[in-house]
Amino acid sequence: MTDKIKGPASYFPSIEAKYGRPIAEWKDLIRNQPGKKHMELVTWLKQEHGMGHGHANALVADTLREDAG
Hints:
By secondary structure, this protein is mostly helical. The protein has helices at about 10-20, 25-30, 40-50, 55-69.
């Protein structure tokens, strides 16, 4: 039995399908925005890349979690 993916990563398949880039590439783009806080990064993804709020928030949250840990 496969465990269902939970949390921000549950959005990743639909993010890749809808926006045409792999998650690693999105995370690299986020990491190349130094000094921006969580909501600033979410707003940037929405404005610059046309991403929906939920997708942007999931990507930022997971990226910042990885970088902190």
